[in-house]
Amino acid sequence: MAPLTVINESFVTNNTYQLLDDRFTNAVRVNVITTTVAAVCKRSNKHVQKKRRIVARVHCRNIKNECPELTCKEPVLLPGRCCKSCSSDFSSDIVQDLPAQLSSEEEERSLKHFGTLLTGRTSQVLRRDEPSPTSMYNSAYNYLATGRFTFHRKNLYYSFYLSTSTPRPRGIQFIDGSGSILEEQAIDPIGGVYQNATGKLCGVWRRVPRDYRKLLREERLHVSFIWEPSATLTGQLSRYRTLSTEQYTSLLEPTMGVDRSLMSGAGATAIVSASSASAPSIHVSLVFNGVFLPNDVSEVPLIVQLEHVEKDYVVLREEIVVKKPSNELNFGEVRSALSGADLRLLTRGKLSISIMSRKDPQALRLAGIVGPRANCEMYQTLLLSETPSAASGLAWAFLDRAGSLRYGVQLIGLEEESPLVTLVDEGGKRRTELEDLTPSLFEGLANGSLERPGPRFLEPLFNGELAVVAASHVGSMLRGRLLQRPVADARDTAAPILLRRLSQEPVHPGPVGLVWTAIDLDCSLHYELEIAGFPQTSSTNSHEPRTFRLYLETMPLVVQGAPVARRLLEEFTGYILEGSVTGLSPVELYRIESGIGFLEVTDKQAERILKAPFKARAPLNCLPHYADNDVASVVAYNLQPPKSDIETGACFHETRFYEEGTQWTSSTDPCYMCHCYRGLSQCDPVPCPVLTCAEGKQLKPPPGHCCPLCSTPGINMNATGKNISTVTRSCTLAGQFHLPGASWHPYLPPMGFDTCTICTCDHVTLEVKCPRVQCPPLDCDEKFAFRPSKKACCKQCPATTPSPTIAGDTTRLPRDQAALSIKRTTEEILASGGCKYPLGGPYENGMEWHPRIHSHGEIKCVKCRCKNGEVRCDRKRCPRALCNTIAHQMKRGEYVVNSDDCCTVQCRRARRHHRNNHHHSARHSVTPRELS
């Protein structure tokens, strides 16, 4: 099987498998031999290298010959097995080389709390087989970064702090110990809302293959930042046990006045945790390099100092000893008691931490401010009612780069109750109200920030014990605990969308949901959905998670009758969904950016539960090639996005959409009828039939009608006797109402009004009759008759005229027509449908003639005809049978009978020329310009 160029995954038999994954297949076709169930092929996704990048490739082998030996006399072949087995043998009969698998919960616990330090010195680890990197050729040697990694739902989320002198990298790579690139991602040069507010770099490696997770577990995975080919930083992903309690992070870099020759490529990161219990304390774990003198070999003393950023105030100063210094990574810890005031300084970002050499603290010193922890994380919750209610809401919060707590709250169903919104600590035996957010609440929305939150806020926030409560004076209450969620893609936006119930009946619990959405540079829509408030079912399978579907709906405009494009994004179980969709059309992305997209959650029975409009910013390269607000261009651009339910070709007219094939009266002018045909609306003026009643009995049309009508007993008139006051009865045809006694032409889209039919509404029976106009018999042959206009009801016989150039010439007239006794003017001929012609014109409508050429005279083999102002000239048709007869007779030298010069010459043409003519019309058309 040919290799696939999809990194970390391979595709075979319509399935996608992780790299280095093993599966068994029932049939695999190799060349012309197809294995059957008795010869099962084992698929193993191996990898190959292309320019240091790991690329998936499928390898198959037949394991039928690897079956174990059996001891029974009559083994049996069970369905779906390759090898026979004994009836008493319940063990696996197939050669298995799959390692024991960890459960998803165990795997997530084993793959947490990884961190890294990226400096010029740590980048030497993977470059030992190359010349030693120096600042001479690695321009990123003095860049500095620290990262944190969390494995969640088979995805590896990464978070980084960059030093002030380090620019945002162009890309990130995950590599193994040999330098092979396992995963490579481009980094958005701008970043999203969260990244800009926190100063962090956030991302995710989705669907990490099992063997790569093993590398992470064994601390054999590395990460590399790429700025340019000669500017890279690399660090090893290591498990730090203190990350489980990390509350603050510091990135330490060389300070002013240090010896740059000794500290080139040096840096450090501090993992800080604090406790505000009865005896407040602090714990600092340091990962560092570059603070050693050349002669420092063992038992090197270092000073760790925590001090105020703006004042000359030292909180703690401790000495640690490094037994054996390393040029790459060193570790140290400090524990100390703190006062309550010092702890508040720590939470408000007023303290910095430094590590320095005791021998020469001025030349070897690293320092950095202690700020929020490096993890990219968002705290969110759904607000559920504790009693039957139609109200619901959501809340979210995160810590920005200054340590302030930014929050957002959205409530629906409590607008008339003036609710109070508070932050409550639910960690203890008693619930403690910490902050009132009501002053920032306006029309159901609350947005703001809490400056410098103290330990009493942060500890319950980190522990998942901080709740948002919305309560009103009438007894309504919504509550939810803020829980930590990793940030990447969709959550790196301004705010989530609240999914609302379609039914507003008070229920308990009431379903509610929130969703984050974002569109990346590759035009993929990312979404992260969380739903709650679903009651437990009473069925036997109540322990199993429910199945839901998430749909995307888009439409041109949110108006009546707008066509809807509906796309199934994903079917999922449980109450949390993270995913993405590719292949959205530019029109769908345009509609999403314009805020006319909808997300809808349904259950397995297709019952609609939650729905909400949403809006996401799309890159310019993902949008259509127009940037205006023209509705017609939006509708006509593409109404059938790929892989979605087909939209009907609806038409937008005035203020709403109409379905294909419908007709309606214009809302601005009742004398215009409109219809929708192939996505375009067309309106035609209403023609009024000639009334048969006397002028004194003709009535003016009432409001909403266009044509006058004759007075009938079913119509009441006003005092003047000329206007209609009331109508008690009417006729209906094609959704249109007509007064008794009215007459009209039926409207037949897409051709418009049929003026050859007159419908009438009987004033007694209210029956509609639509007879067609009766045409008089023709005085000429049917084939010569014509319609004077496209909408003419009856055909007419052509009027003949002598040629203006040759008086009295009747040779060019049809045989059943006589010459006119009075010569008409050119204007009269053209007005009646006649035709202009270079030689011999003008000609009457319906007249036929042979064209004339100055050099050849009259061309007998071509006949021209004038019809409705247009001239059409056709060469005489010679059937193939006649040509074959002429050819045989001429070949035998016989006299050709029943032939003329036209067919004799035409049949002598070359076969190729004749074949080319055969692909076109059997009659060769000649334009007047070609003849002249």
TrEMBL record:
BP terms from Gene Ontology: dorsal/ventral pattern formation; negative regulation of BMP signaling pathway; system development
Q: Which residues form the VWFC domain?
A: 649-711, 729-798, 833-908
Tell whether Glycoprotein is among the UniProt keywords.
Answer: yes
Q: Is Transit peptide found in the keyword set?
A: no
Q: Which UniProt keywords apply?
A: Developmental protein, Glycoprotein, Repeat, Secreted
UniProt superkingdom:
Eukaryota
Q: Where in the cell is it found?
A: Secreted
Q: Which InterPro entries match?
A: Chordin, Chordin-like_regulators, CHRD, VWF_dom
Write out the GO MF terms.
BMP binding
| Membrane-spanning intervals of the chain | none
Domain CHRD span(s) in chain numbering: 110-242, 244-375
GO CC terms of this entry: extracellular space
The UniProt family comment states: Belongs to the chordin family.
Q: Extract the PANTHER family matched here.
A: CHORDIN
Put simply, this protein is called: Dorsal-ventral patterning protein Sog
Species the sequence originates in:
Frieseomelitta varia
